[in-house]
């Protein structure tokens, strides 16, 4: 059952109970008020008739010491119609409750007399064939004779008004419930609209449409729920996008790795087969062995770089204060004496918060890439500068450069802008990927500025104090 229908049913049940109880109370209150008025009038009529009877009895000629039955009947007959446009209904009984006079149609029982004593008035509401009546009773003392006087007052109109009131109120209640049902249907539909929109959004997202968002149509708790749902959907979409990118990156990695293995393995197998199956002169033997050695070194370099990347991703790094001078001295010792390129070093003395061996690996890879991108006698510049918020390292070459559309790809594993140039220098396309992983651990990133034919500048910033990291 829909929530809007539940809300509608609950509201209508409450309305029906409310109208029912309030209607019953109101109609019954009016009825009881009218009955109280009628009871008072019935008792007053009974008292008036008792006084009139006693007065009439006193005016009877004193022929007898005790009021006779026929005289009682005459007095009662006169009282029955005297002074009223409508005929009164009364009954007189003696002390033994034997009826001495009764109006025509006075069919009520004598139970009222059982509760009547001297000086008291009693009444009860009874139902006869003709309708509802109030039966009132009292004792009359006339010429030393005790009598019981009973009167009937017709209150059928009061009961008919009550029945009519209930009937009218039922009709009004039904009409109000019908109108209320229509109005509450509109209200419940309006109140539950945000829920329907959220349901639609969840179905769209479940079907794979992660860009769909629920429309916020209210500023209440449901509106806040819609905002929270959209925030959750944004986070979910971002996470799914990252997962898809990661899956795609893994697929690309496997494809690139297989492709990179294919070339050196083909060369190794081909030249090894040539050495095995043919007799070659010394020069060709050396050339074949050299190809096998060169491609083997490429495979070795590639495997070591892959291992470095995996270790870097999974290792916990211990940061320390590292002297910038020690980093530049290390680069000088490693490259200047072994490379044909001209390398210019210039740095500001200072300290950085880092893991020394990892940062050395980053600088070595950047310098190695700069050497590969430059000509044999090309100039490579390495700078270290203190700046606001940290210490910046820059490695700049004047080599072939990188096209702008390729710059965002070069930190991916196995990606090479110029594959033939990289392979000729034992490149595997993994150096910058390793640099990116190391800098990520240091909460930094590799910044690239390059222009084809003019060179490339790669830089990154490290904190100088622990709180900056």
From TrEMBL:
It catalyses: ATP + protein L-histidine = ADP + protein N-phospho-L-histidine. InterPro entries: HAMP_dom, HATPase_C_sf, HATPase_dom, His_kinase_dom, HisK_dim/P_dom, HisK_dim/P_sf, HssS/ArlS-like, Sig_transdc_His_kin-like_C. It is a multi-pass membrane protein. Keywords: ATP-binding, Cell membrane, Coiled coil, Kinase, Membrane, Nucleotide-binding, Phosphoprotein, Transferase, Transmembrane, Transmembrane helix, Two-component regulatory system. It comes from the Bacteria. Residues 226-253 form a coiled coil. One of its GO terms (molecular function) is ATP binding. It is found in: Cell membrane. Residues 189-241 form the HAMP domain. This is histidine kinase. The chain crosses the membrane at residues 7-27. Its main location: membrane. Gene3D superfamilies: 1.10.287.130, 6.10.340.10, Histidine kinase-like ATPase, C-terminal domain. One of its GO terms (cellular component) is plasma membrane.
